[in-house]
Each structure stands twice: as C-alpha cells, then as structure tokens.
Amino acid sequence: MSRFLPLLFFFGAWCLAGPAAARPPRRQALPAYSAYLFAYFTGNSKAEEAIHFALSPDGYRYVALNGDQPVVSSAAISQTGGVRDPHILRGADGQSFYMAATDMVSAKGWDSNRGLVLLRSTDLLTWKSSAINFQQKYPGQETLKRVWAPQTIYDAQAGKYLVYFSLKYGDQPDKIYYAYANQDFTDLEGEPRQLFQSPTNGSCIDGDIVATGGKYYLFFKTEGQGNGIKIAVSDHLTSGYVLRDQYVQQTSSPVEGAGTFKLNNSPDYILMYDMYTQGRYQFTRTRDLTHFQVVDGEVSMNFHPRHGTVLPLTAAEASRLAARWLRPADVWRLTQNPAIRPQNTAVDTATGRVTLLVQPGTSLRAFDPGLTTFGLPVAPAGPQNFALGPVRYTVGRGAGRRTFSVAVQATSNPALPGYYADPAALYAEQTGRYYLYPTSDGFAGWSGTYFKSFSSPDLVHWRDEGVILDLPKQVSWAKTRAWAPCIIEQKTATGYRYAYYFCADAKIGVATSNSPTGPFTDAGRPLLDQRPAGVPGGQQIDPAVFHDPQSGKNYLYWGNGYLAGAELSDDLVSLRPGTTRVLTPDQTFREGAHVFFRNGTYYFMWSENDTRSPDYQVRYGTATAPLGPITVPTNNLVISKNAAAGIYGTGHNSTVQVPGRDEWYLVYHRFTYPQGITMGGNAGFHREVCLDKLTFNPDGSIQPVVPTHAGISPVSRK
C-alpha cells in the first residue's frame, strides 16, 4: 500500500464491531488519589531528550525526582538515542501504567524521526519498552517525514489501548492518526488510520484527548494557518471530531504540547502547555473545557520541563516513587505552611542549611513548616520553636538519610508574592491607603501583557487588587510588553481622578480612572512613540510622573538611554507643547527615572546598567527646578547589590513618603532570591519588589541604602 488510509465511513462500523483480540482486565474501582506525577523531557540537546519525573502533592507545586536526571535511559529504549514528549497513562485495571514517547534526537533535524517508543510498568519504577520504526514496520512509507507526540487512551468499547500521534508525509500538513496497541503494549496492530485533519488544512500536532461527560475532547496544536491550541469534540473516540474554531491558550506567546489532567477531589481540570520560546509552562484551570483561567501564580517547579503530561497518583504510589528518587533536600521545596514564601526558600545541599522566609508577623515560637515528604520519615514532627535559632531535622532513611539545620526568618521583603518589577508607589488621599503598581514579571523577553495593583494600610501587608489594565482586551494599539507603569492622583471639584502611564510595545500610553484600582480606560493611542528631537537612540519607555508641590504643575519623564521630561497638560493625557527637554544627567543613566521633592530640592533617580546585570543599581542627582538642569553629586549611589545577603540587581525604583512626615521609603526590584543569581540573563525577568528605609544626611544628600530581606516594619500614619 502507498500510505495509511484516512478514516472513512466504513471504519465506524468496524469499530462498533470491536476487535477480536484479548481484552485487558475489567476496570476496577479506582483508588483514591492524593498526589501527581509529571513526566517530561527538558530540552533539545541529546542529553536532555529523556524521560524525567517530578512529584506534586496538589497539582501545582512540583519537585523533580532523581535530581532532575532521567529515570529511564533513552539509549536503552530508543532507536535514535533520544525520546521526547512522554505521555503517561494509568491502565484500565488501575494497577498498570503505560507511556508513549517520540523516538527522536532533534539535533538530527525536525524531520528526522520515524517512530515512537511504547513503555509499560506495574510499579512506575521499572519499565519495559519497545521501539517502533514506521518505515520498517509498514511498507510504502518513503515520504514519511516524522512521527510526533504519541499518546494513549483506553478504548472501553474496543477493549484495547489506542495510541494516537501525528504523521507528516512529504509536503502535506501533519495529521493525527491512531492505531491500537497489542495486548502486551509492545507493538501496534494493523495499519494506522487517520483520526483528525484540520479543516483549515493546516498542520495539527500534539494531540491530547480528554474523555468526559460522554464526549471526547481533542486538544491539538495548529501550525501553518495560525499557531496555537484548539479543541475538536466528538461523541466517538475514533471519528466525528468537530472543530471549535478558537484558540484556548491564554498567552500571546508560542505554545505546544497541551496536557490535560483532572484535579483530585475536584470537578476541575488543568490544561497546561509548553511556552517553548519562554522556557516555561503555563497552567490554566477549567471546569467546562471551554473557559480557562491562568493559575501560574500558584505553580512552582525546581526544574524546567518541556512537553510532558501529568498522572494522578495514590499515596502508596507517590511514596514508592519518593523512596526511590526523592532527594531529602527537596522536601523543603514542598512546605505547606501558608506563611512560608516558597519562592524564597534557600536550600544549601552541600552544607545542609535551609532558610525559610515567612510573612511578617509570623510567630516563630511554635512554627510548623508542614513538610510534604511522600512517606519519607522526618523528625522532629509538628511545631518547633524557631525563635531560639535553627532547628535540626533529619529526613529520609538508611544511606539516604540527611540532616538539615533549618532557620525561619520573618521578613517584609519581597513585599509582593511572585515575580514583579519596576514598582511605582502612591499614597491615595481618596482611600487613605498605599498602592503599588508594578510590571507583571516572569515572562521571557519581558513579554507580559497585563498590569496589576496592590494596596496596603501600612506598606507591609499588601492586598492584591487584581488586573487593572489588560493590553489584549483593553488597549487597541499594543498587545504585549507591558512594562514600568506609574500613576498620579488629581483632586478635582467632583472627586478624584487617576492617570496611569504605562509602556506597551516600547511606546508610552495613558489610561484614566476615578479609582486607584480602576477600571482604567485607555486613551486609544500612544502618548509617546517618538524620540525627542536630537536624541539618536533609545526606547520610549519607563514613564515617571511627578506633581510639583511648589507650582502645582504636573510633569512626565521617560527614556531608555536618554532622559527626557515635559510638562503635562491639565487633562493629564497629553504633553504641553514646547515643554519637552532632554535632561540626561551623565553616562550612568540607563533607564527607570523617578523624581520627588523634599525640602526645596528636586531629586532625580535613575537606574544604571542592564536589568539582567547583578550590578543593576540606582543613582541620583538634584535640581532646583522640575526640568533641571540636574547636578550629579560625587557620591551618588542610592542602592546596589548586597552580595553577602544574596541580593542582586537592585534597581528601577520609586519612593513613597508617609503623609505629613519627613519619612521616606525606597521601593525597588531585585533578582528573585535565592535563584536569581544562578539564572543568567533570565534573572532580568524574574524579579521581586522590595522596600527599605530611605534616609538623608543633614545637608540633604542621600545615605546609601543597604538592601535587606528584613525590609521595613509596618508604618503608622498617626
């Protein structure tokens, strides 16, 4: 034959009749699940194209097993020497397990692979495997270019395991095919048949079928005519899929490798996918497989997965995996006490020292970290008195047993949970609260698309006020690179008005609201998208807004590589013509300007170096007028790295003054602690917002700020 036959009308009758081969054991009552196993690979080098495992207690927090090294040798199971895209499935009997993976080494070319690998296990620890080369197994396959992303589902009607995958022939688009596995899950029976072809005639790869409510939901990635994840739905597993012609990924970044799993003890599902150009996954939650909400803020991993899948586990199965592959040091990454800042847990595996940063005000006299050990023994158990100093713990058994010296520190830094940067601060007279307006960080290439705000009564306890401006939904002229906002409050005869200045696609826009938390309405066009006259280079980014208490006028400053400033019109959404000036203070100016007024002096602050550099830092100058000229003191460093404390990349700041008092605080971002300094350039978009006290010498000069983990104490306005 020349090629696998497409799925024609006669196959529906064949499927209903069912194959004659022996069937797997009857389905048993499923056990209670309390954990999750993530199977994945890690990258495009041959050493990274292998099966890795990670465990999770809740489907959100994951820790790599075996030190993030492969749990199965690719050389032992594949023909090419590498495997990718592992899919893991629990058998119909509830006791057996199946995996399928792409047999491929990408260095040989994306059109180089010709087969897949089937694996089976009864304990998740040892796996038997078979490699299937399609051109060797089936005649007439000369034009076959690739076999990608196999997955498995049990067909109860046929009584067999169905394996589906995408194939590409010649110049035709990729299509999804399927074949049944034999009883031993060592080979495919018969010839693969077409399961789905995109109605748009584009490529469709990375199929993932979810069976629920009597229907089958086929998630797949489209390529060639719009790229992203779509769903086709059918009443039958092997035929009749109807396309829902809309993308379901919740990002504008390229994605692939959709994987869907049901949460334990919940009707909800997680749809996750590989944001492969950003080196990370995105997790979304859904109940109806139609509407998806991003839950990235709840997800943590100590590894960087590529295209994988998740399997719910019983406690006994998780314990078995942990006993084999969980390193005792990694249990500290799965603490359950909500006071702990999991992003900031520091584990020194060489010395056995662990530092847990916890929320301010947490009592340390009877503190229980709430370890998740998946059955590994741990002592002591329960609450311990960390106020007296570090507590010694032992984790594990036998030769793998480790002792740790665990310290708990209550800190105010970082001020916000998660990745945020470029913070602008505001005290709002309307509400009597403080507000932070940061860049939403953690997106590769600074590709975030939305802005949030946070409010506090005391600069220490912050409340998430939610998204206040979403570029794809609310801004017509830009859709990504949401950076470096700032805000001003204006009291009017009828109330209060807020102008919010922000970067989008390297332009500066403005949106307005009657509330410091929105909703904000975009002006409909950029406020600034050109460099000032005479400036040869640099970006139009990093706005800073300033109200001059002496003149009552308002000013906007901006620039990357140069500093410019101009007076704002009374409407706050335009610049007063003819007032723009170039103010670049000296060669140290990079970006992130900020201006404030104190005791008759205008202070100009800016960031030096690149935000990806550990030496990103803040300098300042002074002026006697809002548009300069700026005088640069000899010793003008405001804040820089504190290597002894593991704090790096301290920059892009604002300040906040306690109303009615000469009491000031510096608001800035740093590399995420402790991982940032190990992340190379990626640290430049994995940043955290912090506050420390800002003090002045009697002559008005600024005392250098030493960045701390402790941060500040709650501020009273009385």
From TrEMBL:
Hydrolase found in the keyword field: yes
Pfam families: Glyco_hydro_43
Similarity remark: Belongs to the glycosyl hydrolase 43 family.
Annotated CDD domains: GH43_Bt3655-like (cd08983), GH43_BT3675-like (cd18828)
Identification of the protein by name: Family 43 glycosylhydrolase
Keyword Hydrolase applies: yes
Gene3D superfamilies: Glycosyl hydrolase domain, family 43 (2.115.10.20)
GO molecular function, a single term: hydrolase activity, hydrolyzing O-glycosyl compounds
Keywords: Carbohydrate metabolism, Glycosidase, Hydrolase, Polysaccharide degradation, Signal, Xylan degradation
Site annotation Important for catalytic activity, responsible for pKa modulation of the active site Glu and correct orientation of both the proton donor and substrate: residues: 542
Entry superkingdom: Bacteria
InterPro entries: Glyco_hydro_43 (IPR006710), Glyco_hydro_beta-prop_sf (IPR023296), Glycosyl_Hydrlase_43_Enz (IPR052176)
Coiled coil, from the record: none
GO BP annotations listed: xylan catabolic process
Signal peptide, first to last residue: 1-22
